[in-house]
């Protein structure tokens, strides 16, 4: 390590600092949401497993997952890493948002409730919507596994 390039050392230090900073802000955001939910909804309801699961599905899947996946897929496409899956993920993000806007156009409940109740309806758009969200979750699992594998390979080279 004594003859390592100072630029790569500084880059590694900044990446590590950035990762911990993002995790800290994510923890603060999660704790704030939990406190607000306890204040406005009540602890007996918030800590019920079914409501908490439905809330997590609503927040993570229907609101943030397409918007987090789209820039990540574009970056993956630009860096030429897993281009086929990145192109599919971009298309699925667009499809999911179009279907979400269709649901939000004043026809009944919001997208979170609709996603939880669509088992009863069973139209083709519902199935496409669920398959789209499942593909986005699959894409993120593949990205995280690939990143962990790359980090393990880098650690073994040192």
Cα-atom radius of gyration: 20 Å
Overall pLDDT: 75
Note the gap between the termini.
Answer: 9 Å
Helix-strand pattern, N to C? HHHHHH
Q: What spatial form do the alpha-carbon principal axes imply?
A: flat
Number of alpha- plus pi-helical segments: 6
Number of beta-strand segments: 0
Could you characterize the architecture of this molecule?
The protein has 158 residues and is mainly alpha-helical. α3 packs across α4, α3 packs across α5 and α4 runs antiparallel to α6. The relative contact order is 0.08.
Give the arrangement of secondary structure elements:
Elements: H1 6-41, H2 43-46, H3 49-78, H4 83-103, H5 111-121, H6 124-157
Helix pairs in contact: 3-4, 3-5, 3-6, 4-6
Throw out a few tags for this protein.
158 residues; mainly alpha
Describe what is shown at a glance.
The chain is mainly α and 158 residues long. It contains 6 helices and no strands.
């Amino acid at each position: 390590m004594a003859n390592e390039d100072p630029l790569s050392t500084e880059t590694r230090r900044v990446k590590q600092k950035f990762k911990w900073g993002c995790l800290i802000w994510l923890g603060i955001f999660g704790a704030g949401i939990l406190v607000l939910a306890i204040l406005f909804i009540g602890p007996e309801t918030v800590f019920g497993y079914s409501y908490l699961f439905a809330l997590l599905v609503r927040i993570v899947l229907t609101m943030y997952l397409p918007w987090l996946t789209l820039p990540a897929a574009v970056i993956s496409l630009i860096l030429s890493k897993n281009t086929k899956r990145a192109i599919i993920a971009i298309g699925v993000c667009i499809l999911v948002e179009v279907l979400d806007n269709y649901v939000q156009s004043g026809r009944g409940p919001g997208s979170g409730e609709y996603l939880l109740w669509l088992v009863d309806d069973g139209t083709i758009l519902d199935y496409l919507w669920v398959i789209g969200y499942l593909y986005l979750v699959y894409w993120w699992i593949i990205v995280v596994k690939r990143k962990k594998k790359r980090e393990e390979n880098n650690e073994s080279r040192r």
